[in-house]
Amino acid sequence: MLNDVTFGQYYPAKSFVHNLDPRAKIVFVIAYIVAIFLAKNFYALGALLLVTVFFILLARVPFGRVLRSVKMILFIIVFTAILNLFFYSGESAYEPLVDWWIFTITYESIVNMVFLALRLFLLVLGTSVLTLTTTPVALTDGLESLLTPLKWIRFPVHELALIMSIALRFIPTLTDETNRIVAAQKARGADFETGGLIRRAKSMIPVLVPLLVSAFRRAEDLGDAMDARCYRGSKGRTKYKKLVFSWRDALGVLFFGGVITGIVFMNLYLGAKFDIIGQIASLF
Amino acid sequence: MQIVAKNLTYTYNPKSPFASHALQGVDLTIEEGEFFGIIGHTGSGKSTFVQHLNALIRLTGGSLTVGDYDLSQKKCKFIELRGKVGMVFQYPEYQLFADTVEKDVAFGLKNFRKDLTEEERTAAVREALETVGLDFEAIRGKSPFEISGGQKRRVAIAGVIVTKPEVLILDEPAAGLDPLGKQELMELLHRIHGGWCKTVVIVSHDMDEIAENCTRAAVFSEGRVAMEGTPAEIFARSEELFALGLDVPLTAHCAMLLKERGIDVQTNFTCADFADKVLALWKAKGEGTHAQ
Known about the structure:
The complex is a heterodimer.
Chain A: H1 16-19, H2 22-38, H3 42-59, H4 63-72, H5 74-87, E1 98-100, E2 103-105, H6 107-133, H7 136-147, H8 157-187, H9 197-203, H10 205-228, H11 247-269, H12 275-283
Antiparallel strand pairs in A: 1-2
Helix pairs in contact in A: 2-6, 2-7, 2-11, 3-6, 3-11, 4-6, 5-6, 7-8, 8-10
Chain B: E1 3-12, E2 20-30, E3 35-40, H1 46-53, E4 61-66, E5 69-70, H2 78-84, E6 85-88, H3 101-112, H4 118-131, H5 136-139, H6 149-161, E7 167-171, H7 179-193, E8 199-204, H8 207-213, E9 216-221, E10 224-229, H9 231-236, H10 238-243, H11 250-260, H12 271-291
């Protein structure tokens, strides 16, 4: 039942994107998110979509796989889209299409809805390329390396990265455990599929209690295992795999610099998102 | 209930880079009344196979019937089937959840037998706990998390046998138990096997356990049944078992060493039988020397 958690799941393949330095990829994704929020018109969003598709092709991850992680938040996209459709409060230059009770639909609200949905879609699409092409270990290594300056203000960067990698490491373990417990309770006649919301929530108790107990047991075991190996935190610790910034990463940085600049120029010269109404209208 | 599997196939994570073919055409028949052993490596498909038997894993390829239940039918009453085919998972104590032992054991009963009254239910729980060798009055009110490991295992097994399934499947039931605990567990299984429980299926790595207890066994390898027969037949083919990376019981090792020294012991590989046969050979030899 939990096997379809693809968001944040690594997809093994050999590709240019897989080989990029995780630090570079994290910076790209941050730049990408900034670019999405900077984008003020459909040209810019379209350009970003093209960039994303280009990277998915480059990463050799099947599109179905990437789209599956979008499916997870499809509900959120639809929900915000509907809210924006009905409760858009901006000025409208045209007659409202629907005006009933508290609901108003204008041309602007439709455009706004499409714009926001596209924006959210791109957000998930781009970030899932990162998690699909980077192993959790590489990801935390990259994050730790990027956050190193914070050590100056005594921020426990290493410990934070460790917590993150342990959490990520235990997702598949706990998923397996959950599946096993679910199977065991099903064998004793537990029914998780029928009944109303409350009954279903109650039916999860026989799964959640053993899961919690085992999570604590595992945490204690892990703590003992770390103590047995004399783990003392970050002090004097070296890395087995050092991150190396290569020409590929430099190329990627240049490319993303170009993308951001491009978006800014598109914003400046290609008009605001509502211009599209005028453009469509001029067709008729 | 007779269990018939024909050309059973199953793949985990199909159509992905993580796809693994757990079962690749299993043909196996388990008759009612058998004490059946399933032997195999980790990843040989044995656990996947047994989870098919009470529809915890839905059939995706091949056919499987358990008694009158045809698992390839969409209309098959899976919940009812699970009441008749009990399943004890590996380390079953990790599935305990209720605040008292009594409630935990009664969980399956509440799901499968909704018609029972409070008294009948208590009586069934008492019987199950006493069958696994626990004192009902002493343990009923305790939390399943404060009792000892051995007791937890017994409580968990009681939670499965409380509904008196006709077929009882146990995945590595003796894993992590001390020798005495293992022996007691096997005695318990033989005790219930004669009564309401018609068929017992155990999955095990322990060849001695299979040799001592099972009437018949199957060896799984790479998602197929590699060997099938009585333990005596299977363990007589020790070379093939070694080739599959499996072991043979201690008695079979002894028999092989004796054979190297020119003494052929015909045994079914249980300890008692092996001792009898060796003793008989020794006595015969002794009489032989006397006669000279």
